[in-house]
Amino acid sequence: DRQAIIDRISAAPDLGQLDSIRVETLGKSGSITALLKSLGGMDADTRTAEAPKIHALREAVSGAIAERKEALEAAELDRRLATERVDLSLPAPEHPRGSIHPVSQVMDELAEIFADLGFAVAEGPEIEDDWHNFTALNIPETHPARAMHDTFYVAGEQERPMVLRTHTSPVQIRTMQSQQPPIRVIAPGRVYRSDSDATHTPMFHQIEGLVIDRNITMGHLKWTLETFLKAFFEREDIVLRLRPSYFPFTEPSAEVDVGWSMEKGRRVVGGSEGWMEVLGSGMVHPRVIAACGLDPDEWQGFAFGTGVDRLAMLKYGMDDLRAFFDGDLRWMKHYGFRF
Ligand code: PHE
User: Fold this and answer.
1) With pLDDT > 70 as the criterion, what percentage of the chain qualifies?
2) Pairing relationship of beta strands 183-192 and 120-121 according to DSSP bridges
3) What are the distances in angstroms from CA 324 to CA 79, 100, 110, 151, 312?
4) Is 251 annotated as a binding residue?
5) Whose CA is nearest to atom 2 of ligand 1?
6) What ipTM was reported for this prediction?
7) Which of 32, 37, 253, 323 could form a disulfide with 282 if both were Cys (CB 3.0 to 4.6 A apart)?
8) pTM of the complete model
């Protein structure tokens, strides 16, 4: 019945059900298709009477289907436009990115500061022989400084004992052996000592400085350290105090303190309410210069060494050295190292 079919079409709730109605009526074995086929078996008079009605029925049904299809498609589009709208005011999803570790960042900062002062970067091995780490630095075998360094020994040959370098000072030796003065280098890198608490880790970072030339004095040393510390802490009120000290490889030797003061309940570098030690330094010992094959009557200079991790802690207000090497991303984030 024509009206029943048309009603079903206009009531079809979705495109799937509408298509089932199309198959049922206009499909290969559909009811209207069957009517059209039956025309062939009719006598001429009946056919003339029936054909226009059947064709009209087919037109009406296919027209109704097309109309309903359009309506359903339009409704579907409206629904998608309503629900799939892009909200441009929402924050964009965060894509995690790697970032530089504070220690690497501080090493880069230091290299840049010293590059401006004319220092090149020198390197040496982390597995070092006993001669470069100790003997050439005027620390003979029986010297108590060997015990003080809490050295990690590496299995090696009898004649050439190997250690994990306990400081970056052996790079002084390697540089003087391989370069002609004048020399101006820094040597940043990893060093190792068998020690572990809140302010010591078995691996940490030092930066060494070495200047060898004619007529170098402690005045040059002090100016260099002051200029470097002002640039690193980004403050003009950096005050240094050189305390007489002892290192086997420098003479005279000085430990360098930097003044601190309280700001917003926190101890910061700058001013001079108190002192804290930041560096070891001195004039390179003539025996060290001679051990490298240079004439100590012609060449002299200064050297200094400091802990990079400690400098990072002071600059960024960190309190536990071990956290540097835990790899905890929350810690990085807390100190503003974004990634
Ligand atoms: N190598 C010394 C240390 O590790 C530091 C230092 C370097 C002192 C150069 C004087 C000169 O403690």
Assistant:
1) 99
2) parallel
3) 53, 12, 18, 22, 10
4) yes
5) 305
6) 0.98
7) 253
8) 0.71
